Amino acid sequence: MTPSIEQPIGIFDSGFGGLTVARAVWDQLPNEDIVYLGDTARAPYGEKTIPEVREYALECLDHLYETGVKALVIACNSASSAVLRDARERYDVPVVEVILPAARRAVKVSKTGRIGVICTEATATSLSYDDAVAAVPGVRLFTQACPLFVDYVERGITGGSELLALAEGYLASLQAEAIDTLILGCTHYPLLAGVIQYVLGDEVTLVSSSEECAKAAFHALTDLGLVHAEPREASRRFLTTGNAERFEGIGRRLTGGFVHSVDQVVGVSPG
User: In which domain, by residue range, is 123 found?
Assistant: First the structure.
């Protein structure tokens, strides 16, 4: 299938975190239609094995591809870790992911080469960020899994003493390594940037995998001439494998009303 400029951008995540990517893509490409699929029935992916994540992610990406999209954006670090190579061989449209763009940006902005990454257990186990910076001389990567952050985000908690204490515990080992740059290696985590920056201090630069992924999507589509040159009324469509009403409620709360009109996907297995 040859992608067409009139087709939407397909964005996939295990649940809600990828909405930060969708919002960033929309901000950078406001004339492009998007269709977002969140696999909330099987989320979170961060606690699952790599083979499980690969199976679920490919099933969802297949669904998006079959609807007719001009690019696939894997807006999930865990899924990017598990499925990127398979996806690029499987689909004949551009496939954009979150890990390499964020790693490249972190290497570029770090002055000391001491870079931290916070992520899910699945992403940490995959060593995907380690692989992304392995060939760069003078770079040392320090990884900390922060699995409970996802739950706080999805409950709408982005501040307060309880979350602050959790963040201090998670980030202590990275502070001890004197990092000067931190990759937010889960697309939920940009929503916690305030508390993370508060704990680390302004001397540490935060790199959002969501923002860098959106930039990579812009570059990929522009290079292929698949970006609308003139202003137009673009559409946003949201799909979920779980409960559509719950997805819309949480999505609206997390994104300030960006999410609307959610439909439940038929044909993607919830188990």
Answer: 99-209
